[in-house]
Amino acid sequence: MQNETRPLLSVRNLRTSFFQDEGTTQAVDGASFDVSPGKTLGIVGESGCGKSVTAQSILRIVDRPGRIVAGEIVLSRADGSQTDLVKLDPNGREMRSIRGGDIGLVFQEPMTSFSPVHTIGAQLIEAVLLHNAVSKKEARHRGIEALRSVGIPKPERRIDEYSFELSGGLRQRAMIAVALSCDPRLLIADEPTTALDVTTQAQILDLLRKLQRERGMAIMLITHNLGVVAEMADDVVVMYLGRVVEQGKVDDIFHDPKHPYTKALLQSIPSIDAVPRLKLATISGSIPHPFNRPTGCPFHPRCVSAIAGRCDTEVPQLQAVGEGRTVSCFLCQ
Ligand code: SF4
């Protein structure tokens, strides 16, 4: 039995590096956070902040020359046991049963995730057969029901179509059906609506919310879109250059951001109340090249509040600033 007070997934001091001839890139640099059962955790940050590599690390699908060099990723299983995913063989039987079984994955671009030479059904049935001891007929039946549950019309016919025959919205629904076909307790959704128009985006978010309510599953939502986070998340983790810089409840983060990077991200969201023709606020500079990591606080070259002589030499640690709230900034210590 799942202990409801225990996190479903607990990531501690995760470090994932890429070892190349040119040097070593620390894509994830000591990230720690929890995903609670049945809740949505939003992971936000600009491109290159390490959010997707964090998800790949959890699923143990980091491509070479990358690898996890330190940390723990503890998954609470349905039978009450706990498994540190870092200790598992990425291609071993246990990790393969967790990937797609306990943890489902929805990618940004379903066009590249589906094989163009196999029908949606073939891929759906394969996923069901991989994780369940059922006949092919039963797997097809489950596949049709999975397509129906994500709102795909005429699923008995659609199951025999190829991904390129579906619209972008239907393809993403089919991708969600594949991810949910084995009833995962955690769904990792990596920019699930980025490639979609706003109407379809709203429909997919509604669908994810409905499925979460019905199944009680947790969602780890990776996005650069703070609007999506505000709509979906219970808890938020803000990442910058592979480090968690702030985390807390969604209302606290949006109404009282503490870290200068979180503040800057929120100020750069267009608002309906904004003065017409006024330029949107931007974050000065850009994310540094991974081989050119700044000393001290990684955000200091772009930070409007940087303290000279301290922020460029010392690294701030993540510290509690209230209940369930942590920030890594000298201004909050
Ligand atoms: Fe800015 Fe210094 Fe805080 Fe970093 S530690 S975010 S540079 S004020």
Layout of helices and strands, plus pairs?
Elements: E1 9-20, E2 23-35, E3 40-44, H1 51-59, E4 66-76, E5 82-84, H2 93-98, E6 103-106, H3 110-113, H4 120-131, H5 136-149, H6 155-158, H7 168-180, E7 186-190, H8 198-215, E8 218-223, H9 226-232, E9 235-240, E10 243-249, H10 250-255, H11 260-267, E11 319-322, E12 325-327
Parallel strand pairs: 3-8, 3-9, 6-7, 7-8
Antiparallel strand pairs: 1-2, 1-4, 4-5, 9-10, 10-12, 11-12
Helix pairs in contact: 4-5, 4-7, 5-7, 7-8
Bound molecules: iron/sulfur cluster.
How would you explain this protein's 3D organization?
With 333 residues, this protein is α/β, with parallel strands linked by helices. It has eleven helices and twelve strands. α4 runs parallel beside α7 (168-180). The two termini are 39 Å apart. The relative contact order is 0.14. Iron/sulfur cluster (SF4) is lined by residues 259-260, 297, 299-300, 303, 305-307, 311, 316, 329-331.
- Provide the structure class: alpha/beta
| End-to-end CA span | 39 Å
| Structure summary, number of beta strands | 12
Largest sheet: 8 strands, mixed
Query: What is the helix fraction of residues, given as a range?
Result: 25-40%
Oligomer: single chain
- Note poorly predicted spans: none
Mean pLDDT: 88
Task: Give me the strand/helix succession.
Answer: EEEHEEHEHHHHHEHEHEEHHEE
Shape: globular
Tally of alpha and pi helices: 11
Instruction: Return Rg in Å.
Output: 21 Å
Portion in strands: 15-25%
Strand order of the largest sheet: 6-7-8-3-9-10-12-11
Q: What ligands can be seen in this structure?
A: iron/sulfur cluster
